[in-house]
Predict the 3D structure of the following.
Amino acid sequence: MAGVRRVFGGPFDSAGQPDSIFGKRMAYSEDRAAWFEGQGLWQHIPESDWRDWTWQLKHRITTVEQLERYMTLTPDEKAGCAHASHKLALAITPYFFNLIDRNDPDCPLRKQMIPRAGESVVSEGEMLDSLGEDEHSPVSGLVHRYPDRVLFLVTDRCAAYCRYCTRSRLVSNAQDYNFHPEYEQGLRYIEAHPEIRDVLLSGGDPLLLSDRKLEHLISRLRAIKHVEFIRIGSRIPVFLPQRITPELCDIFRKYGPIWMSIHVNHPKEATAELKGACERLAFAGVPLGNQSVLLKGVNDDVDVMKALVHRLLRMRVRPYYLYQMDLITGGAHFKVDVRKGIEIIQALRGHTTGYAIPQYVIDAPGGGGKVPINPDYVEKITDDEIVFRNYEGQVFRYPLTSQPRRVAAAPATETGHPVASYRL
């Protein structure tokens, strides 16, 4: 257990940071005042086209030939692209492609978007449906795992495809899943189950739906009296911030509050355009949270994670979850040791505001739901006290019982009656 103690409870370095069992980390630095903006490779395109989300979708990079027009692929990437049509389609918006370092195969955004040969390798424990969603699906497109809430999958398409996608079995239909959401069946199921108070729209990405379809779904949900909480999970603001139009914000304002979780994994994704999109959503009354996935070579670093959560707060986004990557097929090359995730959370605690610290979770394989994974600050609990450490490793005791040590003389009031006074 000595190795576990080092990760969960110290020792600490001279700056109060926990030592790492993974060796000395490389410092990540950035210009905190800079927010990437501009059209990059597409400077020749009229600004009106660039700001049009439908133009971005029509001009996505979806083939090896398009990629090689702008960059030199590694043999690993070429092999991954050859397999993509059988696993998960390749698609990157021009806006997001600009953020990729085309000269660095280790670019954290490049790793997320461009397929690699590891996707074709299935490791022990990996599953097509790693969260057991299909077996908790009473009707097509609806997952009812938790007692009071449901997951409503409304599309199998995304603006761009993350190579570690939990739902790669159905998203993009590269694996012939042939997902066809039944909106009316899903809505009728929700109407018939008064215990459901919370509905999460996901997919695919719900914000790829037209304004008309999205308003239809949200208005129908809002009309169900027992539905109190409507959420959207989307990476559209990150891949396609142009989609966050005034018209879309009007829909959210009309039927709000609509809560939204976006998905940012690295500070390089936090651009001026994303910041603007988040501000438009926030001003429309949309509370924003962020869900990151812990990915090897992307954000498995304390300084990277700290830079990310700080940028999120500056964009009006509260860090919500940090996920241990799900056990999807072909995902082993992204997998990070869980102890590293705990180490990152421990290194954030006390060194930045509590608002910036996400909850690290593992979504239990097979459908067990989210389980929080935290550093262990508690040394012991007895009937009399709890003994625990703070972020610097200092040990403290908090009494669980309250016994007066002595009774002080009671001073008299103006009326002459004594006032009880105890010093504990």
